[in-house]
Amino acid sequence: MQGRVEWTGAKNMVGINSNGQKIEMDWDDGPSPMQITLQMVGACSLVDVILGLKDRKFSDAWVEMDATRSEDSTRHFTSMHLVYHIRGNVPLKLVQRVVEKSHEKHCGVSNSIRQDCIITSDVVIHSE
Questions:
Q1: Segment 2-17, tens digit of pLDDT
Q2: CB 121 within 8 A of CB 79
Q3: Are 65 and 85 in the same domain?
Q4: Is the sign of the CA dihedral 108, 114, 115, 116 positive or negative?
Q5: Looking at beta carbons, which pairs linking 62-67 to residues 24 or more positions away fall under 8 Å?
Q6: CATH number assigned to the domain comprising residue 2
Q7: Do 111 and 65 fall within a single domain?
Q8: Which of 60, 68, 72, 79 has the fewest CB within 10 Å, making it most exposed?
Q9: 40 and 95: one domain?
Q10: pLDDT tens digits for 83-123?
Q11: Are residues 81 and 121 part of one domain?
C-alpha cells in the first residue's frame, strides 16, 4: 500500500492513494485526520457487517460513531462507541456476532487503533 499527503495551503491537505483517488482534509474545520480515522473504523467494520449478512434481506445499513480522545498532547482515541443500524428482517444475535468478530479480528482499521482504546458497540434492527 502506498500513499501521499500534500499540504495545499492554510490548514488544508489532500491524501492521495496509489490509484490517484483523493481525500481532502482541513485540520481545523474538518474532516480532520482524526475524524477520518473514526469514520474509517466505521466504514471498515460496516463492510464486514454487510458481507457477514450475505444472503439476508435488508435494505439499509449504517453506523453512528461517538469517540473520546485523551487530553494529553497525543490526543489519541480513548474510547469509541459504534451503533450499527440495519433495516430489514435479520436476527439481532447474528448482527451482534458479526460486529463482534469485525472488531475482534476482521477490521484492520479498528485493530490499528491503540490497545488502550475501548471500543464498544450496540445494534439496532429497524423493521422494513
A1: 999 999 999 999 999 9
A2: no
A3: yes
A4: negative
A5: 65/38, 65/39, 65/41, 67/38
A6: 2.20.25
A7: yes
A8: 72
A9: yes
A10: 999 999 999 999 999 999 999 999 999 999 999 999 999 99
A11: yes
* CA–CA dist 87, 81 (Å, integer): 20
Whose cell is 482534509? That residue is: 25
Interacting residues of 75 by C-beta distance below 8 A, sequence separation 6+: 34, 69
Count the residues in the chain. 128
Enter the DSSP assignment of 105.
Answer: I
- Cα dist from 43 to 11, 12, 76, whole Å: 25, 23, 19
Q: Does one domain contain both 115 and 66?
A: yes
Give the span between the Cα atoms of 49 and 61, in whole angstroms. 9
Instruction: Say whether both 12 and 48 belong to one domain.
Output: no
pTM for this prediction:
0.90
With a CB cutoff of 8 Å and minimum separation 6, the contacts of 112 are: none
Together in a domain, 18 and 46: no
As given in the structure block, the three cell numbers for residue 27 are 485540520
- Cell triple for residue 43? 466504514
Amino acid symbol at 13: M
The C-alpha cell at 2 is: 502506498
State which residues form the domain around 27: 1-31
